[in-house]
């Protein structure tokens, strides 16, 4: 411990997990010194509004700040913004920043999140080929969308679909290029993936499925996107949304165990005493699911950040949620809970009216004389996700027919 005998907490990250960790620490330790180090120039913020209200021009960027700057001052937190941490020494218990500053730590949190995967094809560096991860990315893209024109979205994942919806709302012409047979195919499967495809087509999006991108054309600025099929699609703006990877470079300097992110146990402790991880970067041990999982979603950053902060302050914590995420596209709001391992052959049960854009979908496996729900999602059927989470957590065996029947309240099954 340092000379003045208070615990030195250092949190690396400027996202939601970092902000919540401060809360978790302060709930139980009012005295410890907390420093938050973020490579970004902004106070910690959450990202969902960046592809929704902010990108649609309906809200100012500051809606994304988890707390205003004054809150950190009131909590006695030192914010070091616009400063990347470059190396962690476990022997010296220090972290070095890019500007040479060396900070001592007794307890350190890795909340370094994710970075976007880049598309390495000819023309990929042309101006107008953009990515969306940060607040600055969102504001720059908003200006582009406000100018209208032809927008090509590469990748029909969550970010790609939300950007497409925002671009349509700005009146842009939108083409999505996706190499698989349907949007979100790996998570949703073909039937629900096709619902997303139809939903976007109904809002005027052109979808090119089963086609990759071979390059971008243009001299000083992107003018087109070349597909594997040999087509060139006109574009003044391209948004690439082909996934993210956990930001583990700093963790590697500490020597913590890394396997699809930073490996932690259920209290979010890494393999090195005194170092915790939370949010997108953490691959945590889920007792509920009986495996390690890494989740790249808001609720996980929110809840694991808080749990890690408590754990760092010495509280006994077991982080064990049912994974959850949400999305908003046009007039559809959806929530998804659960986890279907990639190697599991699940079946789909649909409740409600997909054509009317008001339905639920369940990914189930047969068990006993019925089925067990691994994951469930609703589109515009609100106040149902708690019951879905209860079914998953309790491993309830339910009748397939009742699950599919909208007249049977889900709460009754749970
Ligand atoms: C545009 C967008 C929309 C989204 N919408 C949804 C949604 O609708 N629903 C949903 O469930 N999820 C959504 N997500 C996902 C969700 O936002 C993430 O899961 C969440 O941001 C993860 O939070 P985090 O704190 O773990 O990491 P991040 O938010 O990635 O923050 C990590 C921070 O650490 C900083 N950092 C990294 N390395 C260093 C270093 N060495 N030194 C200093 N700082 C460093 C980074 O600069 C960054 O500020 C969205 C994500 C994006 C990008």
Strand content range = 25-35%
Structural class: alpha/beta
- List each distinct ligand once: flavin-adenine dinucleotide
The overall pLDDT, averaged over residues, is: 97
Please mark out the parts with pLDDT under 50 across 5 or more consecutive residues, or reply none: none
* Largest sheet features: 6 strands, antiparallel
Helix content: 10-25%
Shape: globular
Q: How big is the Rg?
A: 22 Å
Tally of strands? 27
Number of DSSP helices?
Answer: 10
**CA(first)-CA(last) distance:** 49 Å
How would you describe this structure in keywords?
single chain, six-stranded antiparallel β-sheet, five-stranded parallel β-sheet, 10 helices, binds flavin-adenine dinucleotide
